[in-house]
Structure formats: structure tokens, C-alpha cells
Design the sequence.
């Protein structure tokens, strides 16, 4: 943290706090019946979402379905995300995508994708295109530990390495694919082992936003210098179940306590105060602002209209084609 | 013009006109394409735009989707429709759905070319007709090219479309010499009236078009009727207008397809005709389709599993006799 500016640390804190407040509100609205379907919360993992998006600020991003905080950290307006969760037409995907499908090409943000590992080939293809287009920023893709057992994962690391693509693979290893411990279905739990013969691969503390930020900055430099793909495994933990329908009973209280003692938000605050680089006043005002923004997002979502029924047939196909050769 | 040359010319011209058009697939580059469709393109456009991929169909299609998102206009070649099943998730869950579930924000201008159908003794895992699977998916466009004219104009149209297109070819057609008709305006979604007639409409597509045309003179002679033959060309969307106009005229319809009968593509076509045109029909529709079996290696068994000109003749004559035609 010492090497980072206080502004950066403040930004990390605010975005993580905003993300957590957003998801706590989403959980509450789900309980009230205002949000339905699958709701995968990022609570506990905010350092991965915020640190990575703050570092990877230019290229294309392909995400999995646990992406509210990633979208916020990427610059998507919380009220558009909340409206999407409410299924409203004002939502970022006009109420047709829901929690798992937040897309915004204007932010180069493609996802979330709700097929485990399904977005990795897309990220790979996009990285290929960026490379031949001569663009340096490359592609970032994030996925969970469960995805590293899928064929799409192996195909993607193989192709990315063979063609030296500018692509950062970022796995959030929270140890559980829904309720299956990664070690029960994988020969080891340190997942960077799966990529280390293909590309530089490292394991970092995913509960520490500064460490995530630095790792992604390093990876970014690597891909920008045309050195091929880069693999980061971030050890992290989700405090909630896989989704709202999961009570998380497969994990022990002891294990939960260990990770909660490493809470990314509280620990960032504690450390910044100890070093004296951010004031208590900033944290108080950031907390308050986050609550206000989330409150406004909920109000916006609640007051927004449902999609008109004619929307049912919209967007299945392109009506007007642009960039079409006559 | 050879069928494969028509496809090659379409790709070549599109690549020349727009540098965002790329082709990827197994053996498409240095080898020249499994069926020689991409012959010469590697030399002309280079490795960046004519991309040899691993044998990993999920990635061929998945990577193509990513390229499309990044602003390219990819043509993904899958060696046979059988192998496209490995890419089914990418085709169905990603390519077909991104536009809808992003509320119209995502555009996937992707063409997936693949041959299907029964060739010669390739056995079950290389001889299938899965058009019925892809035609059932909203968000996909499914075109089936039976001739050089459609192969050329239809493929050009597919590449130009901003929606994902499944472009079906047939393995036996690649080396066929065919008539090529210059077109001023071309609508890829329009069915082609291949032969006009008054008393019976035969609907077909892909290679069965030729088996039907071979069978028609005998049937016309035996039954003393005149037959209209329609090549559907576009399976999704289906040109119901052309079909309805023909069936209203002839009042009888036969569907001929190589696909398996149960749940085959013809089942949908006949269901729609029955639903929309029931009272114009003078006879129950007839479906001539492949048997409900995997395709055998043995040539005799293989031929027994799909329609042939002889079978088309005997089935229609028997059906005609039964219904007073």
C-alpha cells in the first residue's frame, strides 16, 4: 500500500464499499421479492473485482455471472444495474438479462456469462482480434475455480499461449464450485499450477485489493509488451452462498471466521489508517456516499417501468444492419 | 462452376471488400480447406485473416464470437455438422442469445459454415443432418445451400448479416459442376421454385433437391400429374409465403429431407402447413425422410437409411394411389 497514492487507496475503498452496500441492498430486495432468479453475490470478494478493474482500465473485459461489483468498478451506473436486477426496462440490458447478464460494449464490458467457462473462448477470440488490429490494451477475463476444470478453459489457455495473445486469465479461487470443494474434483487446490506450463502464472492474496491491483498491473504490462498471456490466481472467499438459493452449510464457521478476519474492506481501512495515508473522515464520508448511491439506485429501480410486451420480440435479430457490405 | 468454387469466390470477394472479414477453422489455411473451399485464400490474405485453429470446435466458434465482439466479421468453418455438437454451447448459449440478453447491445456478425448429410460410407459420426437442431434456436439464422448460385449469393449475404448465421452445405455437393445464374437482386430468405407444376408441391433442400428432380419425371408420368418443386434455401426464417402460394395452387404437399423423420426439419414444415393451410389440402401431407437410425458404414445399409430417387418415386406413387391421385 505504501507505494500507492492516497487517492488510489480512497478509490479502492469507495468502490469496494459501494459494491458491498449495493449487494447487501440487492440481498434485501431479493428477500422482499423485488429481485428474482439467480443472484450471485460477490460479498467478501470485492478486492478481486475492484483491484482488477482499477488496474485493467482500457481493454476488453469478459466476465462470469458474479459480476455486479465488476460492472460497478468498470464504471457502470449502479442504478442501471439495480434496475436490471429488478427486471425493469431501464436496466442495463432492458430487463432481459438480469443479474447474470450485464453488458455494456461502450465500456468494453462483455458479461456476465452464465455458462461456467463459456466466456473464456470469447475472450481468447477477442484477444486474437485485438492483436491483429494492432491494439495493445488486450483482454481481461475473470472466472471461478470451477471453470478451471472445463474443456473451454484448457482450450483457451492452449490457444492463448500458442498464439501469444494479449490476454489476462484471472481466476477467483474461493475454493467452492457451488458446494463442491475444488480439491475434491481437481488434483490440487493451487490452480495456477494448471497454467504455469503455458504462461507466467502466479498466486496472490485475493483478499488484498492492493495486491490484486499490483498483480493485474504487472500482467497488463506483460500483455502490452506482446509477451503473450498471463495467469493470476487470487485466493479469495465468498461470505454468502453460491447464490441466494444456497445456504452455504458445506463450509465451517471456523473457515468463515478465518477469511472474515481478512476482510478486504476492513483491512484496507485499518492499514490505511495505520499508515496515516487516508483520514477517518474520508472513510466516514465514503460510507455515507455509498449508502446514498445505493439508496438512489433502489429507488430508481423500484420506480422504473416494466418492459412493454412488444419488447418480447425486440433484439432477437438485428433490425438494421450497420457495417454491412452492399 | 463447381459448388465449392462458388463458396470460395463468395468468401474471397467478401474478404477483398472488407478487411474485417476473417476465416478460421481446422485446416482452412495452409492445407487449403478440408473440401478445398478456402483454397488460395491463405496465400492471398495471409495467416492473420485465414486462421488455422486447433481441432477444438468449441473454441473455433467461441473464438469467432469474441472476434465478432471485437469488430471482426468471422467465418468459422466446422468440418462436419457432427463436430458442431462440440460447439453447441457456444452456438446456442452465446452466439444466439447475446443480442437478446444484452437488450440489443451486443451484435454478433458471425457465419458458421458446415457440411452435413450422408456422403459415402463415413459411418455414424461423420454423416448427420442436424439442421433441425439449429433451426429450433431463436437468434440464429439457418441457410442451406444446394446449388452454386445460392452458395455464392447466399454465403455473401450471410457474411454481410449482423446476426449469427448457420450456413449449411452438403459434403457430396462440393465437387459438383453446377449452373451458375447471375442475379441482380438476391434475397437469401426466399425459397426457390425450381420447377413449376399444378398438382403436387414437393418441398426439399440441400442434396435431396437433386434426388427429387431425378424422381419427378417418373412420378409425373406414372400418376399423370405435374409437380412443382421448391427448394427451401432458408430454414430459419422459413419462406411460408412461397410455400403457401404453391400449396394453394397444387393442394397437395410432399416433404423430402435427408434428416431423420422423428423431429426432423420436415416435421416443422408439415406442422406449419397443416396448421395454416389445412382446408386447402386435398390429401394428407407425405413426409419422406431418413430412417430413425444412426448412419451405417455399409453402403447398402447407408442408402437404405436415407431417401433415394427410387424411394421417392415408389413412396409418392403409393401415396398417390392411396389418396386417389
Sequence:
Amino acid at each position: 500500500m505504501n507505494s500507492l497514492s492516497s487517492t488510489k487507496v480512497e478509490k479502492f475503498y469507495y468502490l469496494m464499499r459501494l459494491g458491498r452496500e449495493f449487494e447487501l441492498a440487492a440481498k434485501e430486495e431479493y428477500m422482499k421479492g423485488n429481485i428474482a432468479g439467480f443472484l450471485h453475490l460477490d460479498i467478501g470478494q470485492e478486492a478481486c473485482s475492484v483491484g482488477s478493474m482499477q488496474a485493467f482500465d482500457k481493454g476488453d473485459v469478459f466476465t462470469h455471472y458474479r459480476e455486479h461489483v465488476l460492472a460497478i468498478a468498470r464504471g457502470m451506473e449502479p442504478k442501471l444495474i439495480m434496475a436490471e436486477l429488478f427486471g425493469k426496462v431501464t436496466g442495463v440490458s432492458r430487463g432481459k438479462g438480469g443479474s447474470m447478464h450485464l453488458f455494456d460494449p461502450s465500456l468494453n464490458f462483455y458479461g456476465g456469462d452464465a455458462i461456467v467457462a463459456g466466456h473464456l473462448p470469447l475472450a481468447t477470440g477477442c484477444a486474437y482480434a485485438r492483436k491483429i488490429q494492432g491494439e495493445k490494451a488486450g483482454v481481461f477475463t475473470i472466472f471461478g475455480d470451477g471453470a478451471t476444470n472445463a474443456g473451454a478453459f484448457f482450450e483457451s489457455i492452449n490457444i492463448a499461449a500458442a498464439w501469444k495473445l494479449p490476454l489476462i486469465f484471472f481466476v477467483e479461487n474461493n475454493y467452492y464450485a457451488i458446494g463442491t470443494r475444488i480439491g475434491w474434483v481437481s488434483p490440487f487446490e493451487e490452480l495456477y499450477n494448471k497454467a504455469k506450463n503455458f504462461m507466467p502464472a502466479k498466486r496472490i492474496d485475493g483478499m488484498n485489493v492492493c495486491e490484486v491491483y499490483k498483480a493485474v498491473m504487472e500482467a497488463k504490462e506483460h500483455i502490452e509488451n506482446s509477451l503473450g498471456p498471463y495467469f493470476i490466481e487470487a485466493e479469495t472467499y465468498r461470505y454468502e452462498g453460491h447464490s441466494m438459493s444456497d445456504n452455504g452449510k458445506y463450509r465451517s464457521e471456523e473457515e468463515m471466521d478465518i477469511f472474515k478476519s481478512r476482510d478486504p474492506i476492513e483491512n484496507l481501512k485499518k492499514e490505511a489508517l495505520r499508515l496515516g495515508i487516508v483520514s477517518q473522515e474520508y472513510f466516514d464520508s465514503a460510507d455515507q456516499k455509498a449508502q446514498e448511491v445505493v439508496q438512489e439506485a433502489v429507488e430508481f429501480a423500484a420506480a422504473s417501468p416494466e418492459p412493454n410486451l412488444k419488447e418480447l420480440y425486440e433484439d432477437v435479430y438485428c433490425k438494421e444492419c450497420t457495417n454491412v457490405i452492399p | 462452376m463447381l459448388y465449392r468454387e462458388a463458396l470460395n469466390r463468395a468468401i474471397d470477394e467478401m474478404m477483398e471488400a472488407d478487411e474485417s472479414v476473417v476465416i478460421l477453422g481446422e485446416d482452412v489455411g495452409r492445407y487449403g480447406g478440408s473440401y478445398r473451399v478456402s483454397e488460395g485464400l491463405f496465400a492471398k490474405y495471409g495467416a492473420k485473416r485465414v486462421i488455422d485453429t486447433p481441432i477444438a470446435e468449441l473454441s473455433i466458434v467461441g473464438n469467432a464470437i469474441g472476434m465478432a465482439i471485437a469488430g471482426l466479421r468471422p467465418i468459422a468453418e466446422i468440418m462436419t455438422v457432427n463436430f458442431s455438437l462440440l460447439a453447441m454451447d457456444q452456438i446456442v448459449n452465446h452466439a444466439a442469445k447475446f443480442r437478446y440478453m444484452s437488450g440489443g447491445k451486443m451484435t454478433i456478425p458471425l457465419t458458421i459454415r458446415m457440411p452435413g448429410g450422408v456422403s459415402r460410407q463415413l459411418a455414424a459420426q461423420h454423416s448427420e443432418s442436424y439442421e433441425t437442431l439449429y433451426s429450433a434456436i431463436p437468434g440464429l439464422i439457418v441457410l442451406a445451400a444446394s446449388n452454386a448460385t445460392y452458395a455464392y449469393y447466399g454465403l455473401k449475404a450471410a457474411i454481410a448479416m449482423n446476426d449469427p448465421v448457420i450456413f449449411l452445405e452438403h459434403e457430396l455437393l462440393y465437387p459438383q459442376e453446377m449452373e451458375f445464374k447471375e442475379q441482380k437482386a438476391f434475397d437469401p430468405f426466399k425459397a426457390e421454385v425450381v420447377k413449376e407444376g399444378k398438382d403436387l408441391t414437393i418441398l426439399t433442400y440441400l442434396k435431396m433437391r437433386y434426388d427429387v428432380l431425378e424422381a419427378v419425371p417418373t412420378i409425373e408420368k406414372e400418376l399423370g400429374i405435374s409437380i412443382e418443386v421448391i427448394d427451401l434455401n432458408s430454414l430459419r426464417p422459413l419462406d411460408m409465403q412461397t410455400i403457401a402460394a404453391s400449396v394453394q395452387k397444387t393442394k397437395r404437399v410432399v416433404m423430402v429431407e435427408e434428416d431423420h423423420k422423428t423431429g426432423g426439419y420436415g416435421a416443422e414444415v408439415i406442422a406449419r402447413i397443416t396448421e395454416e393451410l389445412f382446408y386447402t389440402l386435398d390429401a394428407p401431407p407425405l413426409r419422406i425422410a431418413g430412417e430413425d437410425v444412426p448412419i451405417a458404414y455399409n453402403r447398402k445399409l447407408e442408402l437404405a437409411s436415407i431417401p433415394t430417387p427410387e424411394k421417392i418415386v415408389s413412396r409418392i406413387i403409393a401415396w398417390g394411389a392411396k389418396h386417389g391421385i
User: Anything to note?
Assistant: Chain A is about 45% helix and 10% strand. Confidence is low (pLDDT under 50) at residues 321-326 of chain A.
